[in-house]
Amino acid sequence: MKTKFLLTFAFALTVLSGYNFLSAQTPNLGAAANFVLFSSVGAIGNTAISQVTGSVGSNSGAITGFGNVNGVMHNADAATAQAVADLQVAWYYLNTLTPTSVHGPVLGNGETLYAGVDTIAAAGSIVGILNLDAQGNPNAVFVIKTGGALTTAASATINLINGAMACNVFWVAEGAISMATLTTMRGTLIAHNGAIDMGDGGTIEGRALSTTGAVSVYGTLAYIPIGCGTTILAGPSAPALGVVACYSIFSSKGVVSNSGVASVVGDIGTNQDITTGYNPALVIGIVHLTPDSYTAQCAADLQIVYTNLSALPYDIELLYPAQFGNELTLTPHTYRMNAAAILTGTLYLDAQGNSNAVFVMQIIGALSTSTYSTVKLINGTQAKNVYWLVEGAASLNDNSIFSGTLVCHNGAITLNTGVSINGRALTTTGIINTTTITANNPYSGNCSIVLPAELLSFTGSCDKENVELKWSAASETNDDYYTVERSAEGKIWQAVGTVEVARNWSLTHNYSLTDRQSSGAVAYYKLKQTAFDGSSKCGFVIAVEKCGIDLSQTLRLYPNPSSGKFDVFFLGDKDRVNSIEIFSSGGEKVYGSKGFQSKFDLSNKTPGVYSVRFHVDSKTMSRKIVIGKL
Question: Of 163, 227, 478, 513, which one is least surrounded by beta carbons within 10 A?
Fold first, then answer.
């Protein structure tokens, strides 16, 4: 019996010893785990532009030289005080581990280490490439301890292979840790009673923690490793968009206008004022030329979206809004900038593999971008999960690439030439101007709340002096009839006629209607669907030039005769006027303009008869004007 007891005790002791040994290799860093750069006693400094993900702090020392950091800056607060205690405990665990291997002073040069505790009696160095091989075990832990300082040569690189993870790698030095330029370091660095510094252009996938000593980086990419049970970032909850989801460009109150060629996927509109300049043929969605019931619903829903976004508590404050971008990487959080922000260069949004992760940027001020600025989505980030709340105006400069839903509160939006927005541009109050842009609404849901039937096409063409309107549709389950409406300027609409919906809803149907009373140089036509319950929804809007129109009848000069000052009245498409030239009776050219001009002043010219020539497309129209004393 006694022998059996002793054997049982010995076995239990062996198991417990092994358990303690393994658990000691994976210390709980506690509050220190949140810091990518930390010193219990020492300054934290940065030179040049470093990209840092994780908190930065010192419990006793200044923090200087940093721009925007993807983390919280802590200086002698409750978080740093707790980190001091937790770091001391972690260091003690690691320092007292029994070595599994004793190594010479030089690591690297292509060698491979396996899981375990490797120790160097005195100072150690890393040269070239050092491989850490987990041999297929993602829980493999690596601890490398030096009895003195630890240094790296320029371009020294730690490679993790066969499942090794940076979160399971620990470097413990009794003294300083100094890494030369372009070093790629992986794992948590703990310098006991020594400083830590990283040379220009280096990378730290891990942490740099000192119990006593300064921590400094120079143009460094430093980020806390993921894995090993760390929380998968999801960000805040996304707001419910309602009808807003279907719009690419929208203002609750303000003119929405475009110049140039705009290609848009999604609806466009305003709930107060008009929408102009968008070619319906280049819009996959509905152009709401004037307010309707759906723009009203969008305005109401947008106010709710704004309220929800502005009420979110922020996780991280970006302290330098004027230096926003510049290769900064952000992870799923709610960020806040307490002043106007200027996005320069590239901003990376990193979902860390979580395709449902949400990003929210709260900007208490205006937003502007540099030319060719880019918001780049990486590692699973989706544009539909990115939200920008701007308290003021937003201006995206030429050729910028922007991602996410932009919500401006009481501010105008300007999308300049060449802008590409993978998302939405929305404002609660303010005009929206776009110029030769591309906008792609990321919504993949059903916009049937706006357009119940699937309208496949809507076209208009001339048949002598009449306009022949044709459209096709499918899935007309709830629709009763269509109404075609006409407007001369896109503001006041008049019904042209109605067509009953075909009753075989499983098929695609073609419809037509002839307008025999069109007027003006250009007529706008809108297709409205009315359901059996009496509700109606507006679909496509198209523009058709006056059929059989005689351009010469659309042009006149007034007053004529004139004292020299006169106006041009042209009812045709002014954009089609290439130039206007004025000649004297002797054939001398006295004036020329590019494009259309409505007012002229020849009061300084010799009285007489002048010829005004209008070049419209490939045609030339002439008018006589008499200049004299009246």
Answer: 227
16 part of a folded domain: no
**Are residues 535 and 566 both part of a single domain?**
no
248 and 318 co-located in one domain: yes
45 domain-assigned: yes
**pLDDT tens across 505-564, in order?**
557 788 999 887 665 566 778 888 887 767 676 666 777 766 655 555 567 888 888 888
Contact partners, residue 18, CB within 8 Å, separation at least 6: none
How many structural domains is the chain composed of?
4
Q: What is the pTM of this model?
A: 0.70
Residues 429 and 466 grouped into a single domain: no
Query: DSSP letters along 20-86, please?
Result: HHHHHHS---GGGGGEEEEESSS-EEEES--EEESEEEESSS-EES----BS-EEESSHHHHHHHHH
Choose the final residue of a domain: 515, 545, 575. 545
3-state secondary structure 547-585: CCCCHHHHEEEECCCECCEEEEEECCCHHHEEEEEEECC
305: helix, coil or strand?
A: helix
